[in-house]
Amino acid sequence: MNTLLPTTTAGSLPKPSWLAQPEILWSPWSLEGDALAEGKQDALRVAVHEQTRRGIDIVSDGEQTRQHFVTTFIEHLSGVDFEKRETVRIRDRYDASVPTVVGEVRRERPVFVDDAVFLRGITDRPLKWALPGPMTMVDTLYDAHYKSREKLAWEFAQILNEEARELEAAGVDIIQFDEPSFNVFFDEVADWGVAALERAVEGLKAETAVHICYGYGIKANTDWKAGLGSQWRQYEASFPLLQRSSIDIISLECQHSHVPMDLIELVRGKKVMLGAIDVADERVETPEEVADTLRRALAFVDADNLIPSTNCGMAPFPRRVAEQKLSALTAGARIVRDELARPVRSVA
Ligand SMILES: [Zn+2]
């Protein structure tokens, strides 16, 4: 990747209305069988087309082939009973009915590899693929078998590693792990969270990223954020550990958040995927607003290591809003890229 400030997204994009009900999260499919398989591929074509047309440098699948960023992956594993449901508290924030781990978890077949092969076939741009992180997977299930979050996370890390290696072989350039749990369970992050993540990336030649955010703009998250005070310092717990880890890229939320910019200094030396687009507000940022966020971040990250991105996924937005936000991101990055390319003139 030779472009300075290559743009990308955290992951999800809205799905077309013929594939799933628009503007809601975790929307069920509108198609089934062969029509669903074909519909997913067409949605991937649209996602690539829109990202390319709007100047996104590192393209993702827009999560067009999955209903939920964690459970769609888990559906492909054995050892989890989706009929047996328990209510658990997710991210220590909201209650949800979740499937139960009833036995040894195993990946019976590749999960997203066929989708990645398809995506690789329709674009020459660098590809980024997101998988759930081990801790966030654990936090989205009821465990009646291992009875240990750490043990279950370790099993998931090995499974994720198998999937990641196959995604890499399919031509994926960056493998991202979504770990919103890292902003909640600080003791566990230090005890085993980062270690499990490193197990998941073991032996990969592709670049690796971890995405840690404050979630989609749903009510449980906005209520939680409202109680976090004027300075969000959650990253302070995980960043020093990640700085010393083998993960290449740290993805964080920044636009309109109360994250103090200087926390980015804690991952100095790593690449930083900086959220310069708010996903909790439909108002489209101006290019100048995006540029301003990027400029301020450059005090704490080298330009070579800055990857302008979105705060989180954009799945719940109307498509028009998400597309305009992609354009704003590209335009904002271009402003700063041009500034950086301009020779510094000495003042006579
Ligand atoms: Zn996110």
Note down, in words, how this protein is organized:
The protein is α/β, with parallel strands linked by helices. It has one domain: TIM Barrel. The protein is built from ten helices and ten strands. The chain has a seven-stranded parallel β-sheet with strand order 1-4-6-7-8-9-10. Helix 1 packs across helix 3, helix 5 packs parallel to helix 6 and helix 9 packs across helix 10. The radius of gyration is 19 Å and the shape is globular. Bound molecules: zinc ion. Keywords: Metal-binding, Methyltransferase, Transferase, Zinc. Its cofactor is Zn(2+). InterPro entries: Met_Synth_C/arc, Met_Synthase_cat, UROD/MetE-like_sf. GO terms for molecular function: methionine synthase activity.
What's the helix count? 10
Shape: globular
Ranges where pLDDT stays below 50 over 5 or more residues in a row are: none
- Largest beta-sheet characterization: 7 strands, parallel
